[in-house]
Design a protein that fits this description.
mainly alpha; 0% strand
Length: 138
């Protein structure tokens, strides 16, 4: 019986580290699964944020394109009108005055348009960043 008791005691002693190791492995696997789940959530959030950002950026690019075409069309029309007016003038002083007034008005219009487009771009950047901020805030 001594051998049987010694064998049983030894088997129990050998089983304890195996059970502890098994528990540690289970805990480690649970941590890895939790980490993988979190990474999946970040990835899904990142893809959704990218999509939302792309939609917002596309709308702004369209708006900028429309504004640029409209501004250039208006500037060209005003330039043609000025050219027609200048062609009918005979006084060089009046021609220079009209050209100067036109240049000042075009510079003012350009400055106003670029300021508006800059504000639009800054606003677009903020809107494009919102989905990312919301995704990473979780």
């Amino acid at each position: 019986m001594a051998k049987t008791t010694a064998s049983a005691t030894r088997a129990k002693a050998e089983a304890r580290p195996a059970a502890a190791t098994s528990k540690q492995l289970d805990a480690g696997m649970d941590q890895m699964a939790d980490f993988a789940s979190k990474m999946t959530g970040f990835t899904e959030g990142g893809v959704k944020a990218l999509t939302d950002s792309a939609v917002a950026s596309t709308e702004v690019i369209r708006e900028l394109g429309t504004r640029n075409v409209s501004f250039m069309t208006s500037a060209m029309e005003q330039g043609v009108e000025l050219t027609q007016t200048l062609a009918s003038l005979r006084d060089p002083k009046e021609m220079f005055e009209l050209q100067t007034a036109f240049a000042k008005s075009m510079f003012s219009a350009f400055t106003t348009e670029m300021t508006a487009q800059t504000e639009l771009c800054v606003s677009a950047w903020r809107n494009a960043a919102k989905p990312y901020m919301a995704s990473f805030a979780k």
